[in-house]
Amino acid sequence: MELLPEDLSDEAARLDGEDPLAHCRDWFVFDDPAVVYLDGNSLGRLPRRTLAALNDTVTGDWGRGLIHSWEHWMHWPTEVGDRIAALIGAAPGDVVVSDSTTVNLFKLMGSAIEARRGRSAIVMSRTDFPTNRYIADELAYVNGMTIRWIDGDPVTGVRADEVLAALDADVAFVALSHVEYRSGAILEMAAITAAAHGIGALALWDLSHSVGSLGVDLATCNVDLAVGCTYKYLNGGPGAPAFLYVRSDLQAELEPSIPGWIGAADIFAMAADYEPAPGIRRFLTGTPSVLALAAVRVGVSAVADAGVPAIRAKGVALGEFLVRAHEAQLAPRGVMLGSPESSVARGSHVSLRHPRALELCDALRQRSVIVDFRNPDSIRIGMSPLTTSFADVWRAVEAMRDALGDARGN
Ligand SMILES: *Cc1c(COP(=O)(O)O)cnc(C)c1O
After folding, report:
1. Ligand 1 and 231: CB distance under 6 A
2. Which residues does residue 246 pair with via DSSP β-bridges, in sequence order?
3. Which one of 52, 164, 187, 233 is separated from 153 by 20 to 30 angstroms, measured CA to CA?
4. Which residue is catalytic, options 94, 128, 206, 372?
5. Strand order in 349-353's β-sheet?
6. Distance between CA atoms of 396 and 410, rounded to whole angstroms?
7. What are phi and psi of 6, to 5 degrees?
8. How many CA atoms lie within 13 A of 167 on its CB side?
9. How far is the centre of ligand 1, averaged over its atoms, from the C-alpha of 286 (Å)?
10. What are phi and psi of 194, to 5 degrees?
């Protein structure tokens, strides 16, 4: 094994100097330059243009335009949906922005159960994000179904052959996260979707930790259904509405589980009975969150302007740099890698594990380094490619090394 230099600060400076996306940091607000923010996968940074966009929507559209502004606001859920579609390999008309990821999971899982009535099982991962498991659990309970939980490797994630082994003709759908929220492992979307289709089940993917950080190809993978967050790598702001995707040929077949008036065929007919809109609009529920959508538009266009391939290339480089720095500085101090070793097998976050992870996160915060603690022993380092520098990563590693040194009393 090659001997690693102890100090990688020159290396970080060189990588920042060569980074084609370095200028993208100027698109965002850096209120306190001393803060190293490695939590952009939980809440993305504030784009500067969001301030003006919100101001325009509030003072111009709302203040001046009043109710007339609904003429264009009404198109925002599908317009922003089309822009997100371009980031995830979907066609225009297949994505809509509405509600939270949680509510969209409920909506699409409900529709999938209805479309596969008579099938009694759902396949999911035991380590998936809590809300995904809770929603599936509840829907399974009220529909008299069971969940087949896959216990995948917590570091490398659920494999296609493990999903295949859980499948038979009783399965209505398989629901998984494309990038696991804890380990960052990327699951085999194409193979797992094909396996689900092999027994006539639907495949639902959660893109919360992939959209805006790596390429997703829903069309090529022939994915049926997907949901995802806009406040993580899409920098849409706290609580920004989520998106959902339904493959175009399924849209007419799937019954919306929340038959709200905004998803009705003729909204202002005020009809006695609900009739769903023909396309993706049927998956809207109530009145769209206009102010929040104004911010999502800006965040999505920042990702589109930088380009997903360049964003992914930087994400991979940041992850490789962190793993090298971990090997040099942290592994000898008892910190373990909780993510796949290969950069192409991970999204843009890396989990580091240590028995005193919570204490370490506090020590990092005191050193102005913001990371995420994930119960019980993980420190999640989110390297949102548009806003993270290699120097940020190095500073975090140094801070962790120093904190560990303190903890050992030297
Ligand atoms: C972040 C995240 C969510 C968030 O759901 P909300 O309804 O927006 O709170 C859901 N699922 C996954 C996999 C996530 O990473």
Report:
1. no
2. 225
3. 233
4. 206
5. 336-337, 349-353, 378-382, 372-374
6. 19
7. -65, -40
8. 21
9. 20
10. -65, -40
Which residues, at least 6 apart from 366, have a Cβ–Cβ distance to it below 8 Å?
A: none
CA 206 to chain CA mean position, Å: 7
pLDDT the model gives residue 409:
41
| pLDDT, position 405 | 84
> Which residues in 345-360 are b (16+ Cβ under 10 Å) and which e?
bbbbbbbbbbeebbeb
Name the DSSP class of 44: P
**Residue 299 neighbours by CB under 8 Å, 6+ apart:** 44, 47, 50, 230, 234, 235, 236, 237, 240
Residues of the chain with pLDDT under 70: 1-5, 406-410
Q: What is the pLDDT of residue 73?
A: 98
Please give the distance, rounded to the nearest whole angstrom, from the Cα atom of residue 339 to the centre of ligand 1: 20
Residue 138: predicted pLDDT: 98
Say what the pLDDT of residue 410 is.
Answer: 41
pLDDT tens per residue across span 48-78:
999 999 999 999 999 999 999 999 999 999 9
User: Looking at this protein, which amino acid is placed at residue 270?
Assistant: M
Give the Cα separation of 218 and 205 in Å (integer): 9
Asked if 232 is an active-site residue, the reply is: yes
Query: Which residue, judged by its Cα, is nearest atom 2 of ligand 1?
Result: 208
